[in-house]
């Protein structure tokens, strides 16, 4: 983060800087007191910077510079840009949007291709052994394949990229809010996210690949937008325009939308998902580019799917990419049906909020296990894999054999990996309906639940058992060290209880059970994720049934309203549990009782416009601040006044260039002629410049450097008496990293302090004022 302190409040380092007696009391990156994160061990000391859980790994976090940093280098670069360079910049933005859509669509297709073929081989092997009545061999083959795939996925996450574990949507959402963490969007994370997701979904876990696809799209966008990686020697100089957080944020927004479009084949839904759930800042220009990106994804997917219809893609045929064809006949409904929809919405809200509560408890428990190291992460994944295999293979034995429907005796029971009529242990002309749901890929299970061929294909007891199993397995599976999404478990559970309600109301309802399954899935999605518009469009796009629009809207609104009475959405809960300092779009009620100066804590470290090199080096060495106020002092001005803010990264570049002066004079014009704006560009995935990389002699330490060329001379400032609520809204809406607090009365130092996102966090504010009621 930008300036915050560790939990070791007793550490004190004295330093005498020009113009102030500055006292560093364990000051760290954010200028505020560190706090215990919800899922972090109690005995862990935060002595370097704020830490949070990213994926299944604990790591330090920083803020991103979304604000345009208007220093002399920026102004000079902007004035000197030629018309051809401006056109090149505009062209590159659209070209990168196209490449993001192309790459994400290709990865989404290969993801489905891998899952369908690997899972298809496993299910065919199990089915052939079951036909030969080799039940024990079938179980060990089924469980063994699942265990091998699960171990592979867990090993990738545990040893190569711990940040790839989980959904990835909370991390992407936090990044777009202005929070960065090491390796969150690294190439290694992208690699593990792709292959770990394939292995995890094919292993039979109750997880989806939709959340990981969002993270994958964001990683692809980040890799393309920063011109490659210096660490892996993959860089492109012509992408120098994008070496800033602001442009990368827009590209990653496009990548997140492309991920949803690739997962659901829903381009409009992807745009709305980015708008409603992922992005914290939005504008019309970004809407156009995001829509263009998802359109490219849709074209790529359609083209590749058509190539596979001839059977050249192995076991991947019409299935794989989620496209559930719900009955498209006339949708007629009565008052009873509307009451049933209301009931589904209420049930979905209650079950969704309970699901979020239980996921919270499970994540807190798993964090204690994951902290012990990679071996324990893998053992936890293996234990859940064995449990999932036992449920998938054992529960169908509780289901009775059902005679095949009249007229399709030749196709029932069907032989193959994906079927609605699996024989399992049943005699000829009979099928096991529960095995058709459990011994299938998750996508095919959803298709079977959404089907409207016959109302009696699944018994009421089968639907009840399947709902309980999926509900529980989805809760205990999320949080293990594999890439895992929440969309599919929620859709499966919601579709099962929706179809169950449809079976119970069959005699009095005009809607068929397939439509009830869709409404049940919508209600559970609304109850867990608390999205409305994007979920509505995604469901309509993947089911191809616009006639259900009014009922889907109604059930989503009801389920979200009911669930909001109990807790927050699952992604918001996970963001908080991971310790990510997310800035909400509204201020907390108690903030109206405080002003800006009330939360500015600790002594301030500032520099003069022309400062001694040794003073700057000492401040950078002893603190983790990322922003330092620069003060104009006599003899350069009549009295002290705020010049602006200088970033840590810019100070390091300036010191490394050794453009010093032996005299304490201004010479900014010389620095502007000897340096270029791109020298101060944000480092990509490679390691940026650190204080340890500087090699300064004792003579250079006594020299001076002019900070004006790298100082943002137009920082956002607020009076110390401004309401903290207004300051929080201003900070969030403008996407700031630093907000200067200036005195209201003259005759005082020109700056009171700097507000960063940590200063607005409830843990920090309520820690300073424990007597305040959080609800008032």
What's the topology here?
Elements: E1 13-17, E2 20-24, E3 51-54, E4 57-63, H1 72-80, H2 83-131, H3 135-160, H4 169-177, E5 179-181, H5 187-202, H6 210-225, E6 228-229, E7 234-235, H7 245-264, H8 267-278, H9 284-308, H10 335-370, H11 374-394, E8 402-403, E9 430-431, H12 433-438, H13 442-450, H14 460-477, H15 487-504, H16 513-529, H17 533-543, H18 549-564, H19 570-577, E10 607-608, E11 610-612, H20 613-622, E12 627-632, E13 641-647, H21 648-657, H22 668-674, H23 698-701, E14 704-706, E15 717-719, H24 724-734, E16 739-742, E17 753-755, H25 762-768
Parallel strand pairs: 10-12, 15-16
Antiparallel strand pairs: 1-2, 3-4, 4-5, 6-7, 8-9, 11-14, 12-13, 16-17
Helix pairs in contact: 2-3, 2-5, 2-6, 2-7, 2-9, 3-5, 3-11, 4-19, 5-6, 6-7, 7-8, 7-9, 8-9, 8-17, 10-16, 10-18, 10-19, 11-14, 13-15, 14-15, 15-16, 16-18, 17-18
Subcellular location: Membrane
Pfam family, one: CBS
Family: Belongs to the chloride channel (TC 2.A.49) family.
